[in-house]
Specification:
Strand order of the largest sheet: 1-2-5-3-4
Oligomer: single chain
Radius of gyration: 15 Å
Order of helices and strands: EEHEHEHEHHH
Number of strands: 5
Number of domains: 1
CATH class: Alpha Beta
Shape: globular
Helix content: 40-55%
CATH architecture: Alpha-Beta Complex
Largest sheet: 5 strands, mixed
Number of helices: 6
CATH superfamily: Protein tyrosine phosphatase superfamily
Structural class: alpha/beta
Length: 157
C-alpha cells in the first residue's frame, strides 16, 4: 500500500485511506480496515464504512482520542484488532495513532520490552516516541502498558 508502514504480515498502518488505497489493499490480500478516527475530526470520511464494506472488507471504526487514552481503552482496541480478520489495515489521520496501536499489539503478542518496541519502531522508520513534542503522559502510558501486559502474555504461554 502507498504511504503505509508494514508492521508485520498481519498489520499495516497508514493515515486516512482513500478508495484507491482500499482497492489496492484488496489486491494485496487485506481482509479488514480499522479506522481510529473520530467522526468529529476534520477530514473524517463519512461514507468510508460503506465504501470499504461494499468492496468486501470487514470494517470497524473505533474513535481514539489521545487525550482520552487509558489502559482500558488500549485493551479494548487491542482486543478488537486481535479479533479482526487478518491481514488488516489500521488507519487514523496521519498514521501516528494507528502505528502506535499496531506496535502495542506486536509488543504484547511478542512479549517485547518498551525498549525493544521503540527499536522496532525506529527500524520501521517510525520514531514517534523519540520526537521532542510527544506527549510524556502518552509515552509513559505506552511503557507502563507494555511492561504490564507483555509480562502477562509471556507467563500465559
Amino acid at each position: 500500500m502507498i504511504n503505509a508502514i508494514r508492521i508485520n504480515e498481519n498489520l499495516t498502518t497508514t493515515g486516512q485511506v482513500i478508495p484507491q488505497q482500499v482497492k489496492q489493499a484488496i489486491q494485496e490480500g487485506f481482509k479488514s480496515v480499522l479506522n481510529l478516527r473520530s467522526p468529529d475530526e476534520l477530514g473524517f470520511v463519512k461514507d468510508e464504512q460503506q465504501v470499504v464494506e461494499a468492496l468486501g472488507l470487514h470494517y470497524i471504526n473505533f474513535p481514539l482520542k489521545l487525550e482520552a487514552l487509558n489502559e482500558e481503552l488500549i485493551t479494548d482496541i487491542l482486543t478488537i484488532l486481535e479479533q479482526m480478520p487478518k491481514p488488516a489495515v489500521v488507519h487514523c489521520a496521519a498514521g501516528m495513532r494507528s502505528t502506535g496501536v499496531a506496535l502495542l499489539s506486536i509488543a504484547i503478542q511478542e512479549g517485547l520490552t518498551p525498549e525493544q518496541t521503540f527499536s522496532k519502531a525506529r527500524n520501521l522508520g517510525f520514531g514517534y516516541f523519540e520526537h521532542v513534542n510527544v506527549n510524556p503522559r502518552l509515552k509513559q502510558l505506552f511503557v507502563d502498558y507494555v511492561n504490564k501486559h507483555a509480562k502477562i502474555a509471556m507467563h500465559s504461554r
